[in-house]
Structures
1.
Amino acid sequence: EVQLLESGGDLVQPGGSLRLSCVASGFTFSNYAMSWVRQAPGKGLEWVSVIAGNGANTYYADSVKGRFTISRDNSNNTLHLQMNSLRAEDTALYYCAKGMSMTTVTKYDSWGQGTLVPVSS
Amino acid sequence: QSALTQPRSVSESPGQSVTISCTGTTSDVGYYNYVSWYQHHPGKAPQLMIYDVNNRPSGVPDRFSGSKSGNTASLTISGLQAEDEADYYCCSYVGRNTLGVFGGGTKLTVL
């Protein structure tokens, strides 16, 4: 059974930094793209970032480009999202998701329960 | 990249069928056969219901089906059940080296 467990969400002040993690189990982690998707309060889903299974390719939403960095540790089945220069509009529930292939940017068949990131002073 | 356009809400009675539309452009939905649909019950993990326009992942009931015509993709749910009440999001591939784009989401109410 695929399991994705996010952690790291916490209250942070504007301009601050936070690192989210997602520990995966139940599948061969390095064979699949992974993604972070967020949902702001009262809003819809938004892709934040995607990383290919081998880590060779990464993609970011324009809203986070230059501030967020996605990475993965395939030896420890862990996905990370380093978030710097956080803004109030980054406040959201952040989901970790598993892709259906090495490089997909639209097909994610398993999702975690999410970790909450409130950005406020 | 602009979000895909979905109706904000739809409603139908149990046992009936409902179709949710997702309108894009010739650069996304109209060009690529890479449209996915996600079901999201608030507070829970989203679930992939349809991928590549009309394919169902294992475990998704065949009451859920997808299609596409021109720039508009559609999700049809037949034999509506109470547990189908959720938010539904479409998503399309928009090209190499970039993320996909979601629709704004449709809230399905089963009356």
2.
Amino acid sequence: AQSVTQLDSQVPVFEEAPVELRCNYSSSVSVYLFWYVQYPNQGLQLLLKYLSGSTLVESINGFEAEFNKSQTSFHLRKPSVHISDTAEYFCAVSLYNQGGKLIFGQGTELSVKP
Amino acid sequence: EPEVTQTPSHQVTQMGQEVILRCVPISNHLYFYWYRQILGQKVEFLVSFYNNEISEKSEIFDDQFSVERPDGSNFTLKIRSTKLEDSAMYFCASNRRVGNEQFFGPGTRLTVL
């Protein structure tokens, strides 16, 4: 069965510091990979996605993630975080050519302190 | 920018009552989904819907649950006889193609007393 593991449930970090949120997945078939962000009392918003092509994908607000097939990982990074990045971050996969449902990780709560 | 909308934002109900959660997906999307998130837990897939029928459902989606697209715009989730453990945030999502990003609504918080 497919699964997604986010290794850190909470990541506290100071403003302007770099951050990495880790995500590993398990699947016997090819996958599409996503990072969603959930701000307090809001729904899920897509942060970035990997469907095919370049393994390094970037978002408009400075986050990037790299698909590593050999390590089955899709870690999220940002070189310098802001207070406004405080949110819950969810890694998710959907299976290639199989229905489209998203399988989510447990989420990582990023807390940026001044 | 088009968005997925959900109503109500918060629903409180008594155990055993029926509830209907409503969603309006983005108009040119073809695939529709319901997910739920129990407080403190991860987001879980419930059901996907395409071409007016269920394409996949999870173990959670038992006979108490049903989905419907009654017209060209709404997509509903019905829980026939709610249980305490149905208390959760329910998210609707849609996309144009399988594998594309899914656009999520803001969620309906269901509280079963």
